[in-house]
TrEMBL record, chains A, B:
Pfam families: ROK. The keyword Kinase applies. It catalyses: D-fructose + ATP = D-fructose 6-phosphate + ADP + H(+). InterPro entries: ATPase_NBD, Carb_Metab_Reg_Kinase/Isom, ROK, ROK_cs. It comes from Fructobacillus durionis. Transmembrane segments: none annotated. Its cofactor is Mg(2+). This is Fructokinase. Belongs to the ROK (NagC/XylR) family. One of its GO terms (molecular function) is ATP binding. Its EC number is 2.7.1.4. Keywords: ATP-binding, Carbohydrate metabolism, Kinase, Magnesium, Metal-binding, Nucleotide-binding, Transferase, Zinc.
């Protein structure tokens, strides 16, 4: 039986999994993220159990080099994470087993899973926004993962400071100028001196968070005109948030530009916490036909 | 001799032109923009002079329907402009002469010309931002004009109000929340009670304008990672502006993300005021091969 592999390479843990031809998960494990070589040794040991893997999809925390023309294609780029900057992630895997790989970012993997989830729908362009320890987005435009001079870092767009918010910001580069600086989980915790998980539904924190995420939705909408914006990551687990985002988005847009109905447009993840792994499987499959 | 046609359909004037196979302009005229049928009658009368036009590229002021699956494909959509809302622009032309047309927005036409200008370069993705009576952008991603649920209206992205700026904004929908509201030519004139053309180089107006345009460049950069951002339209004619934008962009980004060298990245138009017409010719050519 032919198998596909998935490596969801996160900053704190790696999720490894194998599925059959129908994308049913047949095995799955989690290894903690250490330095590059140590972690990858565990990854390859895991996949050594399966000698019939046709292809592997890899969705890695960034920044990574996605440009096939680049000399450092497949490398992890400049990152403060010990033992990762300049590590040849994809090269390590190819050296272990020379099969087709699909190499992309973690958010691109999840975006692809959300896009494929609605594969028979009218959705051709989609933004997957994750709001967790960091804020990032995977973007699909007309069925293609968007990439350019590098991959997007769409958590670092400019926002307008909410007048009720006096927090100085959490982005090491842009402080309170960018979305990540004011809207990530750690920004919320730092601002309110309380974990986002523990903030009451009535706390003004949610109104402010919704304002920032609605601003982001407006900026993505005017630039990309996607068919859907999906909110993933830890913070949007809070059910109070999405209705507030839709309300604020409607106020901000003020009737400008047609969008799908907001209930279908600004939505929670369809694949839950499996989005990353599923995206890797789908991408592994497409790496096979490409090869 | 086979010819190509161009219709640059602006809100105040239409530029009509014809070129030969090598994209040399052989004739050109300008007609004022009246209502839809009146203006289009003049357009077809002009092109009646040439019986050997293979294809025409049309770059129209928006909003227009660019979705070939839509029942109103080729129409001008909701606009306050008298005699245009719901006008079947493309249908009128096809009814006149059934040749291939490339139908797109004015900014997409100019973006395509700027993209083609560097056709043999490394530029695969490009943003053409026009700052004039309105603010708008045409976006090329990996050699394709970006479009989704509708065409981008990337002049209406969220900006952060400059602390020195107390102007209430010029966008009828978003006031001072969006780029167009604070950075268009009329916004400058309204704020300073003086035409942008007449403001001295030393006026603080330029520092504020550069702040907003640098913010826009940061947002486009983090979402799209283009190879180039081109500044067109009336306001960037002022030579004081671009160096200020580059300086402010570097401050805002604070070393985050690789971009091309800023001298090659944030640039004035390469095609000057011919960008719109040239884009139409190139697109007309591609409509022929598509047909
Ligand atoms: N149910 C929840 N409600 C609000 N915030 C949450 C919730 N779950 C996680 N978070 C916040 O999300 C952040 C972690 O993000 P998460 O997406 O879970 O992981 P990571 O980004 O590290 O992969 C933390 O700051 C945490 O406070
Ligand atoms: N040289 C210039 N310097 C500064 N502003 C200019 C200049 N030329 C035109 N503008 C401003 O640009 C606006 C007109 O934009 P333009 O791009 O020329 O036309 P349109 O957008 O109508 O096609 C006006 O508000 C005008 O003040
Ligand atoms: Zn940032
Ligand atoms: Zn606006």
């Amino acid at each position: 039986m032919a198998l596909l592999g998935a490596i969801e390479a996160g900053g704190t843990k790696f999720i490894l999994a194998v599925c059959d031809e129908n994308f049913n998960i047949i095995d799955r494990t989690v290894v903690p993220t250490e330095d590059g070589p140590t972690t990858l040794a565990k990854v390859t040991t895991y996949f050594d159990q399966f000698d019939n893997i046709d292809a592997i999809g890899v969705a890695a925390f960034g920044p990574v080099d996605l440009n096939p023309q680049s000399k450092t294609y497949g490398y992890v780029l400049d990152t403060p994470k010990p033992g990762w900057a300049g590590f040849d992630f994809l090269g390590y895997l190819k050296n272990w087993r020379d099969i087709p790989y699909y190499w992309t970012t973690d958010v691109n993997g999840s975006a692809w899973a959300e896009y494929r989830h609605g594969a028979n729908s009218e959705v051709k362009s989609l933004v997957y926004l994750t709001v967790g320890t960091g804020v990032g987005a995977g973007i699909i435009v007309n069925g293609q993962i968007l990439s350019g001079f590098g991959h997007p870092e769409a958590g670092h767009i400019i926002i307008s400071k909410n007048p009720k918010d006096h927090y100085l910001g959490h982005c090491p580069f842009h402080h309170d100028r960018c979305l990540e600086g004011v809207a990530s989980g750690p920004a919320m915790e730092d601002r309110w001196q309380q974990s986002a998980k523990e903030l009451a539904d009535e706390h003004m924190a949610w109104e402010i968070e919704a304002d920032y995420l609605a601003q982001a939705a407006m900026t993505y909408t005017t630039i990309l005109r996607p068919d859907k914006i999906v909110f993933g990551g830890g913070v949007p687990h809070r059910e109070v948030l999405l209705p507030l985002i839709r309300k604020r988005f409607a106020e901000l847009m003020a009737g400008y530009l047609a969008t799908p109905d907001l209930e279908d447009y600004l939505v929670p993840v369809a694949n839950g916490d499996n989005a990353g792994i599923l995206g890797c499987f789908y991408l592994a499959k497409s790496a096979m036909t490409r090869a």
